[in-house]
Design goal:
This protein is 59% helix and 6% strand. Strands 1-2 form a two-stranded antiparallel ribbon. It starts with 12 loop residues before the first helix and ends with a helix.
Length: 128
């Protein structure tokens, strides 16, 4: 599993791991029933502590994206496509709400926030 981890990022390593695995699950790159690397294997591959990988996996388990079967491994939970789409919408909405609050706290008007969002969408040009 290819992950991009950075010690220089302000985001903790366990959060970088869980964010990237979550994105792969929600985009269906990782499919339901698929087994993930063991804690030790992933920790060894990325030279991080086992507890770092364990925390990332536990976070994803609490979100209902992974399930652990002792002695067998950690698996991606099989969700209907609509459920994963709903999870993605919910996570994006929460993150976007925080950004809107931040913009308002910094004095941006609603029209300025809308203009920024539209400019970003237009700049992306429908790219994924």
């Amino acid at each position: 599993m290819l992950l991009i981890l950075s010690e220089l990022s302000p985001e903790p390593l366990h959060a970088q791991i869980s964010r990237q695995i979550r994105a792969r699950i929600l985009s269906r790159e990782l499919e339901g029933g698929q087994i993930l690397p063991s804690l030790r294997a992933l920790a060894r591959e990325y030279r991080v502590a086992i507890v770092t990988v364990q925390r990332a996996y536990e976070d994803l388990e609490h979100e209902g994206l992974l399930v652990s079967h002792p002695g067998k491994g950690v698996f991606v939970v099989d969700h209907p496509e609509a459920a994963t789409a709903s999870m993605a919408v919910k996570r994006f909405s929460l993150a976007f709400t925080d950004l809107v609050r931040q913009g308002r706290a910094e004095g941006l008007a609603e029209s300025e926030i809308r203009s920024i969002v539209e400019a970003i969408i237009d700049h992306q040009g429908g790219a994924s």
